[in-house]
Amino acid sequence: MISEETNKYQIIDTLIRQGRSFAIYRIPGEDSPRFVMQASGSACLLYDIEDLNEQQGFVIAPFRVSRDCPIVLIRRDYSELPESCPNDSIRMDLEFHPNETEISSERKTKDNYTQCFGSFIQPLREKTLDKLVLSRSLTLDRETGFSPAKAFYKACEQYIRSYVYLCHTPQTGTWLGGTPEIILSGEKGEWHTVALAGTQPLQNGELPTYWDEKNKREQQLVSTYIHDQLASLGIDSTMEGPYSARAGALCHLKSDFRFKLDSNSKLGSLLSLLHPTPAVCGLPKEDAYRFILEHEGYDRRYYSGFIGWLNPEGRTNLYVNLRCMNIKEDTFTLYAGGGLLSSSMLNDEWQETEDKLQTMRALL
């Protein structure tokens, strides 16, 4: 007789094998995960963030929207995990699998990173850009018997201050993450976003008391950007911070922005203005965005996009998709990045990505 816990893992893993569109997620501060599944039809595919205006559902949006990486909106037909495994012979759609070229391009080594760092640091030191975020991926072989569901519940236990999720759709494949960064949350007229930038390890398990000028400058750039973007819509916000905030074994500088909205009908337009934030892109935003697409050397896909529940008539909880991995049939692809300023040093930035990748590696 299998235990209730094992049965729960089997149900979730079966939903993935069947190609169901679903998400299970745990909001920081809550004890139990929430569940959403679309039982019939295909998830809604969108190609412009503003198309999220007046939409409701679970969203997974990429860093760069394209025909191959659309915004996917899962409608909630079920809000409770089934009590038993669905018929495993059913498969609603073929699961998305990147082609061999994409997988190959994701196997980035330190040599690749060093080369990218050289191209990224040049415009920063020439002062044509203020900040750039350089990311990388790491592809590992998937061991036989790995359970995405078990990894999700392990993440819930280990990362109590993070938004932890497991999401699968035929269009996106399977993604698992534990992210500390809100892009938009709230309900009715009260809303919240954050500036999260600057990273260092915990000091003997405690929050650090000292931040160097590079980290403080990086956080200030993100905070100023968010304030100015909100102000461009006539939104008056209040800021609390910056302060040290824990995320797994790492710590970040964080500022909270709180504001009111007269109407919740344009949340997609607000998200379009905020995404991608300088915490995952750079400044000036459009120039940094183009530079990343041209020089980073691989497609981030849903890493550094945003994910979560969107509901203009109720509660919205959307997070930047950091500390995440794409779970494929035979491999895992893990993602991490860091903000670069003109003062950035190669070995420090490489080590920061190593530390961030450990968040997901610890679940394997």
Key phrases:
364 residues, alpha+beta, Anthranilate synthase, 8-stranded antiparallel sheet
What is this structure's SSE topology?
Layout: H1 4-17, E1 21-26, E2 34-38, E3 44-46, E4 57-61, E5 71-74, H2 100-105, H3 110-125, E6 131-141, H4 148-158, E7 163-169, E8 173-179, E9 182-187, E10 190-201, H5 213-232, E11 237-247, E12 250-260, H6 267-274, E13 282-283, H7 285-295, E14 306-310, E15 315-320, E16 324-327, E17 331-340, H8 346-361
Antiparallel strand pairs: 1-2, 1-7, 3-5, 4-5, 4-14, 6-13, 6-17, 7-8, 8-16, 9-10, 9-15, 10-12, 11-12, 14-15, 16-17
3D architecture notes:
It is a single chain. With 364 residues, the chain is of the alpha+beta class. It has one domain (4-361): Anthranilate synthase. It has eight helices and 17 strands. It has helices at residues 4-17, 100-105, 110-125, 148-158, 213-232, 267-274, 285-295, 346-361, and strands at 21-26, 34-38, 44-46, 57-61, 71-74, 131-141, 163-169, 173-179, 182-187, 190-201, 237-247, 250-260, 282-283, 306-310, 315-320, 324-327, 331-340. The strands form two sheets. It has a nine-stranded antiparallel beta sheet with strand order 3-5-4-14-15-9-10-12-11. A hairpin with a 3-residue loop joins strand 16 (324-327) and strand 17 (331-340). The radius of gyration is 20 Å and the shape is globular. The two termini are 26 Å apart. Mean pLDDT is 91; it is low at 92-108.
Question: What is this entry, summarized?
Answer:
This protein is α+β, with helices and mostly antiparallel strands.
Helix-residue proportion: 25-40%
Q: Characterize the main sheet.
A: 9 strands, antiparallel
Q: What's the CATH architecture name?
A: 4-Layer Sandwich
Work out the radius of gyration: 20 Å
What is the averaged pLDDT score? 91
Which structural category fits the helices and strands? alpha+beta
The CATH class designation is Alpha Beta
Along the chain, the helix and strand elements come as HEEEEEHHEHEEEEHEEHEHEEEEH
CATH superfamily: Anthranilate synthase
CATH level 3 topology: Anthranilate synthase
Strand composition percent: 25-35%
Number of strands: 17
The N- and C-terminal alpha carbons lie at a distance of 26 Å
Which regions contain 5 or more consecutive residues with pLDDT less than 50?
92-108
Shape: globular
Quaternary structure annotation = single chain
Number of contiguous helices: 8
